[in-house]
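Handout, section B. The chain below has 261 residues.
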Amino acid sequence: MLDRSFIRQIEDLQNEGIPFCIATIVDARGSIPQVTGARAIFTGKGLVHGTVGGGILEVTCQNKALELLRGGNAASTDFQHYNLQKDLGMTCGGELALFFEVHRQELAWNIVIFGAGHVAQTLCRFLVELDCHVVCVDTRAEWLERLPRNDKLEACRVTNYCDGVDRIVAGADVIVMTMGHGSDLPILKAIEKLDMVISHLGVIGSDAKSGIVRRQLAKDGLPRDFIDRIVCPLGDKIGNNTPGEISVGIVSQLLRLRNAK
């Protein structure tokens, strides 16, 4: 059973965007320095919480965790079996099996949506069915409250849309769909100032809106390479202009771009 402090540690690491690896003793035979179910959390700096027994065993687990954390997968697992005496030179005569699971938020599929209006309401209901984490940012509590309740979705209320830019993590897909280009433009400018690598930046709208947004950003001195990376209009043209079919087109395009990457 996970204790509260263990869960809080995981939440803190996730909120800070720090990659971590959990090592769990899943099976054992004979004498071992901990119990089945014991867990430890490792980051790139080493052990941060819990224990699988200390000593040589924990050092071995830490080295394995660091090896996995250096890998390039968003989520990876590994299974290791140790004879404590033969493999690690410990006086304990037992054997145990350890399961390692890596969590790298910066490589996971993160999506940040600015605007919780009609299209976002439908879009979020599609996205929570996928293997992703969604943050929806809006200034209007009543619209955020209409979003589906799901562990994969965070509703983030802000006083100013630009305050929500802090919720963007490296590698995220960012979608801007507020009430119009007047409120979209400050968000785009704030994103450009982040100097952060994001996977894709999309803006909902028409070809006419795309032209207005790009001309205004250029007039305001934003770099051409940033403007050119903006996907606007957002979404594959596979349906009509109802919120549901617009959302299907957006999901289709996001999946296509993610798979291409």
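Note. The longest strand covers residues 20-29. Compare this with the example in section A.
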